[in-house]
Amino acid sequence: MTGLVQPPTSDQPMVKAEGVRKSYGLVEVLKGIDLEVRRNEVFCLIGPSGSGKSTFLRCINHLEKINGGFLSVDGELVGYRMKGDKLHELKDREVALKRRDIGMVFQRFNLFPHMTALENVIEAPVQVKKENRTDAKERAMALLERVGLADKAGNYPTQLSGGQQQRVAIARALAMKPKLMLFDEPTSALDPELVGDVLDVMRGLAEEGMTMIVVTHEMGFAREVGDALVFMDGGVVVESGHPRDVLTDPQHERTKAFLSKVL
Amino acid sequence: MNSSDRGEVTPGRHENIKAVPVRHPGRWAGALVVIVLALMLLHALIYNPAFEWNVVGDTLFDSQILHGLVVTLELTALAMVMGVLGGIILAVMRLSPNPLLSGTAWFYIWVFRGTPVLVQLVFWNFLAAIWAKLSIGIPFGPEFVSTSTNTLIPVFVAALLGLGLNEAAYMAEIVRGGLQSVDEGQTEAAHALGMSRAATLRRIVLPQAMRVIIPPTGNETISMLKTSSLASVIALEELYQAGHNIFSRTFQTIPVLIAVSIWYLLLTSILTIGQYYIERYYARGANRTLPPTPLGRLRNLFTGKPVPSGKSDVVPGLEGGGHV
Ligand SMILES: Nc1ncnc2c1ncn2[C@@H]1O[C@H](COP(=O)(O)OP(=O)(O)OP(=O)(O)O)[C@@H](O)[C@H]1O
Ligand SMILES: [Mg+2]
User: Fold this and answer.
1) How far is the CA of A64 from the centre of ligand 2 (A)?
2) Which of A101, A165, A243, B161 is most exposed, with the fewest beta carbons within 10 Å of its own?
């Protein structure tokens, strides 16, 4: 665990995990995850239910504390600081500071129901970054425009369809100008005909070079947009590679079995 | 089948539906019975000499009563402010991962909910008797300020402490229930955006918890208005005590009690209406359309029309955008 925190360089990975372990009580959910997410890359995470995909994603922005291994984002340890040869836990305030730069989109949207779409988007810039309200509103409108919802700015989440809610949630995350976006099954709760709109927004983001980690069951999206793909099962990485290769020519039995069920 | 055939089956397909609404003859009959009974009761009340309505009328606006009314209102308002603020602090402490904080809150709630408010009122009033002198200074050190507790705690403050601190314990449980009713995904989303624990509580969780907290808080306020009459045991001149002072002098007990009750009833009615509108305010975002106003509902009872909702009934300032 020494000498791992390097000064950020452009070819340094955005996310680096080595032997990441996480347990809930006696149950070990992540059993040593190794992977690297490079900059400007769309990194897809697939695997059966309960394999630990969400848990790993939540570790990246420290919504969960890891029990072992090494995890860094943009060259900095997640949740800890190395002082001498000892690890020190970060204070809540310091953790919050790091989370600003990592956007997260949830399966169940988690929009703030007491705020309109616009208010959802400006909340963090105004509250966290102390941005001027008028400027924040202007930028929020541009973001809503971009996800195709400029006309819904005044609607409350209950007055929006699932697909629209998820697009507002993406705009909300983008409003913090993140350097990394985490998507946890962003289309799993949507009716099939609404999935396309959300995937289109994500495709646009990928084209602009946003670094994205996407947990998904949309194999079409992974094959088309993904730059790297990891298949997880039982808390370990079973197979990784380029999506085209893994999806068309899986090497491991478990990957083959999983893909035969979802494809 | 050609278009003219279909036209006959559904005449005026493109116009708004004009149908005769369902009639409710039962409701009208029931209303008639209730009105007759109410008139009979009113007649008995008005013409029974025991009620001495002229005395009731005079007492209603007696200066002593009006003064007591003001004291009751102040006491209720301040005790509820104390109760709500204290309740929020205690609830947040109770849910804190810090065992010292949650333990302290648990102990406070245990003591103040577990003893009668009447006892607490008398306790604060007689605090002077327990500590003959309340010293402000370094513990066990020299006393550089020393004052008699009786001057430090006048009766009003004693009543306020007794009611407010007790209320905080009850409000703490109400607020805790409210905070816990908010989906964990909300906290998670706020944290993921980089919001601090305090900002998440203030901006995201508490406003949503309000929908659950407000209705019982309204009941608590109404209950506090009535419970504040207990402060009469420590001789605070609130509404009931003012009435008590009058009838122990004039012996016109029943009319004075009626006058006092009329004031309590009027105030609780006003509070009930206020609560309704506050509830509507905090329901925004939770329902696609707002619930009807009481008037709209009454109108609806007899016409059988669907509840008019949405724009026309929206309370000013309730529509999106304005909320900061
Ligand atoms: N807070 C928790 N406490 C205890 N166990 C948990 C907790 N959160 C997750 N788990 C367990 O961890 C395992 C991995 O969960 P996780 O949500 O990461 O799976 P997943 O791969 O995202 O699955 P899905 O595709 O269904 O979303 C599951 O067995 C789950 O029961
Ligand atoms: Mg999951």
Assistant:
1) 13
2) A101
Task: Give the ligand at the shortest distance from the Cα of A45.
Answer: 1
A95 secondary structure, DSSP code: H
Helix (H) or strand (E) holding A83: strand A80-83
Name A83's bridge partners: A86
pLDDT tens, position by position, B38-92 = 999 888 888 877 778 888 888 889 999 999 999 999 999 999 999 999 999 999 9
What's the pLDDT tens digit per position in A77-127?
A: 998 888 888 888 899 899 999 999 999 999 999 999 999 999 999 999 999
Closest CA to A232 of A240, A241, A244: A240
Q: Is A24 in the pocket of ligand 1 (CB under 6 A)?
A: yes
Q: Report residue B320's pLDDT band, with 50, 70 and 90 as the boundaries.
A: very low
Ligand 1 nearest-atom number relative to CA A64: 1
Q: How far is the CA of A108 from the centre of ligand 1 (A)?
A: 15
The domains of chain B, with CATH numbers, are 70-239 (1.10.3720.10)
**CA separation, residue B160 to residues A7, A95, B16, B168 (Å):** 60, 42, 60, 12
Q: Report d(CA B142, CA A116) in Å as an integer.
A: 59
Least CB-CB distance to B186: which of A110, A118, A155? Answer: A110
Residue of A nearest to B185 (CA): A110
Query: Which atom of ligand 1 has the smallest separation from the CA of A185?
Result: 27
Mean pLDDT (chain A) is 92
Are A34 and A237 contacting, i.e. CB atoms less than 8 angstroms apart? yes
Mutating to test ligand 1, I would choose from A20, A23, A24 the residue with most ligand atoms within 8 A of its C-beta, which is: A24
Look at the pTM and tell me if it is higher than 0.80: no
Ligand 1, atom 31, residue with closest C-alpha: A50
The Cα–Cα gap between A250 and A234 comes to 17
Does the pLDDT value for residue B15 go beyond 80?
A: no
pLDDT digits (tens, 9 = 90+) for A28-87: 999 999 999 999 999 999 999 999 999 999 999 999 999 999 999 999 999 888 888 888
* Residue B88: how many other CB atoms lie within 10 Å: 22
Query: In a mutational test of the pocket of ligand 1, which residue from A23, A46, A49 has the highest number of ligand atoms less than 8 Å from its CB?
Result: A49
- The reported pLDDT for the residue numbered A2 is 39
